[in-house]
Write a structure and sequence with these properties.
Elements (H helix, E strand, L loop, with lengths): L4 H12 L4 E3 L2 E5 L4 H9 L12 E4 L1 H15 L2
Antiparallel strand pairs: 1-2, 2-3
Length: 77
């Protein structure tokens, strides 16, 4: 099936915003989303490398700002 991968990436990043938490000096989020989307978010500089044993991923400052903006855009009142 063909779909707009950028729109999926926006939605995944916005949903990551729901479960941000601070872990010492970084912000993290659970990485239970589509692996291809997570890889694209990594390539765009929004998250750290999602490959590994950890069940969460580091969210970059760029990713934090974009996630909040996208969450408000897609799900805000």
């Amino acid at each position: 099936m063909e779909y707009d991968k950028d729109k999926v990436d926006e939605a995944v990043l916005a949903l990551l915003y729901l479960n941000f938490w601070n872990d010492r000096y970084v912000t993290r989020a659970w990485k239970g989303f589509d692996w291809d989307a997570m890889d694209r978010l990594y390539e765009k500089g929004y998250i750290g490398d999602p490959k590994g044993k950890a069940k969460s991923v580091v969210v970059t400052e760029k990713g934090q700002a974009a996630a909040e903006e996208l969450f408000r855009k897609h799900f805000g009142c």
